[in-house]
Amino acid sequence: MTAISDILHLLFTANLWQATLSAAILLLLPALGGVISERSGVVNIAMEGMMLTGAFFGVVAALAWHNPWLATGVAILAGGLMAAVHAVVSIQFRADQIVSGIAINIFAAGLTVFLINRIFGLQDVGHLGPNEGLPYISIGGLDQIPFFGKVLFQQNIVVYVALVLLVLIHVLLFRTRIGLRIRAVGEHPQAADTAGINVFFIRYSAVITSGLLSGLSGAFLAIGVSNTFVPNMTDGRGYIALAAMIFGKWTPFGAFGACLIFGLGEAIYANNSIIHASPYLLSMLPYIITLVVLAGVVGRSSPPAADGIPYVPGSE
Fold it and tell me: I need a surface site. Which of 34, 77, 106, 213 has the fewest CB within 10 A?
């Protein structure tokens, strides 16, 4: 009962919800990429590897150039390149998209450890200086609002970028001709092809975009939150983002709501020092929430009709 009362008390603190929003954004960026990719008909389970690759190359670039903006660009590009590999294997060669995604995740984990040993030897990767990471921004005036000022207006710059992207991607998918084409390709690629839509171009663009967003999330984790890189530091966030996307029924705002739920679990674990409960049990909380959510939702959620099905021109 003590642990429950501690959690209930924690729920009314601004610090918890500030951490919840930050943790949710780490999941939201790849989840938005997953929405775009799967709306076009390509399953992207490789977001974990794309995040990890972005995090690694972002830290390497930040340590080399001491410029968080250039480092973020490198991280985004690294995520996009990993996504391009997934796109070629899945779209051009029509390989099983789940197998391709898992292979990329395993490859990314091995590649980053190998490069750590080659570049840094047995030494630690190193930590960024206090002014070398992505900055936190307090919006003057608004940040002084009780409770909400700390939660909403004292955040890392990536949080604000992600919230803007959330709105833009929703508008893109459901209010523009480009979004209509993406959804048409994911629902019935043969009909879209007959109507003159380039199915391969749409799918390549969607998958690579998902990699760019995952790379940005990796940059946020590595040079916005941790200011360093450790092997496998994404810690399953790419998979949780995939679960959030499914829970959100392949919509941007639905995915955001799910990310807030998962982010709350992670934020509670981050505050385990003030909760009288086993930290090992609390560390399981985000994953327990994931299992509970998927068990209750997946059976009632329907993905795009052509999701995960390679397109063969001329097929019925």
Answer: 106
Phi-psi region of 123 (alpha: psi -120 to 50; beta: other; left: phi over 0): beta
DSSP string covering 23-42, please?
HHHHHHHHHHHHHHHHHTT-
- Tokens (6 digits) for 151: 């939660």
At 156, which helix (H) or strand (E)?
Answer: strand 154-156
Measured over the CA atoms of residue 95, residue 98, residue 101 and residue 103, the dihedral's sign is negative
SS3 315: coil
Dmax over CA atoms of the chain, in Å, equals 64
Q: What is the pTM of this model?
A: 0.94
Q: How far is CA 33 from each of CA 81, 137, 155, rounded to the nearest angstrom? A: 14, 25, 22
pLDDT in tens, 74-105: 999 999 999 999 999 999 999 999 999 999 99
CB within 8 Å of 126: residues ≥ 6 apart: 63, 120, 228
C-alpha to C-alpha distance for 182 and 77, rounded to whole angstroms:
22
Cα–Cα dist 102/251, whole Å = 23
User: What is the C-alpha separation between 301 and 103, in angstroms, rounded?
Assistant: 26
Residue ranges of the domains in the chain?
2-300
Residue 276 has pLDDT above 90, yes or no: no
Place of tokens 């959100």: 248
Architecture of the structural domain at 2-300: Orthogonal Bundle (1.10)
Q: Which residues contact 263 (CB under 8 A, 6 or more apart)?
A: 19, 20, 21, 22, 23, 24, 25, 26, 27
